[in-house]
């Protein structure tokens, strides 16, 4: 497999769901990233099936059975790699659509010898639909696209139908952890999560910043702009 075989964007969405929560982006890759993608994708990579709900064999993917954390929108992968390195008893499945970010995470996986990370390319919701119910120990949605314009709010990932799907894949006691630097989106997230009948707010409102969540580049950018950070942690009852 070569980098030219790796799709730069997610395949056209199926007719069942045409509204996507992300905007596929192209980007230049360094020679290091290109080499990492060519060599490591066959080992650690997973293309999200084009048909939403296609089953995913997690034990075969990771080569073991362990609690699983789903990282939706892993960006350049630094946060995923850092958390996975500090948490070797759980597996991490990172889902991203930006090819340079996928390549960078693959490079980090190799450089840090991370055996508990796999990287999926495609729509996270299509992937989640194919996971067994109650198969996830945690879902992380850190700094998703806020889609700030009102006409684009329908593209936000944290909305009732998507949350219901994510919650159904959490094991009892599993956590859905969201973070954003957009105050309006934070309030909308909180209202949506609180309204889900199967989720319980772990902190009765916005959570204190968890020490285990590394500072992301989006967070640093927000802090430089004096924007507050909002964490929300809900558990499946």
Automatic annotation (TrEMBL):
Any Gene Ontology CC annotation: tRNA methyltransferase complex
Domain of life the protein comes from: Bacteria
Pathway(s) of this molecule: tRNA modification; N(7)-methylguanine-tRNA biosynthesis
Residues that hold substrate according to the record: 149, 181, 216-219
Molecular function (Gene Ontology), one example: tRNA (guanine(46)-N7)-methyltransferase activity
UniProt xrefs under PROSITE patterns: SAM_MT_TRMB
Cited function: Catalyzes the formation of N(7)-methylguanine at position 46 (m7G46) in tRNA.
Descriptive protein name: tRNA (guanine-N(7)-)-methyltransferase
Species the sequence originates in: Micromonospora echinofusca
